[in-house]
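Long-time lurker. I teach an intro course on protein structure, and each term I like to show students one example going from raw sequence to a predicted 3D structure in token notation. This year I'd like something fresh instead of my usual example. Would anyone be willing to generate the tokens for the chain below so I can use it in lecture? Attribution to the forum is fine with me.
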Amino acid sequence: MGRRLELHVIFKEFTPHVYFQAPPNNGMEYPCILYARDNADTKFAGNRPYSYTQRYQVTLIDRDPDSDILDQIAALPKCVFNRHFVADNLNHDVFVLYF
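-- Reply from a regular --
Happy to contribute to a lecture. Here you go:
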């Protein structure tokens, strides 16, 4: 199983609605976790990469502003809370996660 699929399985422990990248036609069910690759960290030695870690933007979308899922995501290793915003009466909590 690839690393992204491992991450997907972890997210499924938090909520049954997990989406890698946005589904077409806004077909999401809430609460949900929406995540996508957005960068990577590469470390070099002798001009060659020796460590490569993908970075994901992870967004929890929930009607509940005090969702327990928020704490579960925040507790993941190498995960940092980035921002919160409300759109269409849904709370969006955005994290940056290296995995």
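Some talking points for your students: The chain has a mean pLDDT of 94. The helical segments are 3-12, 68-74.
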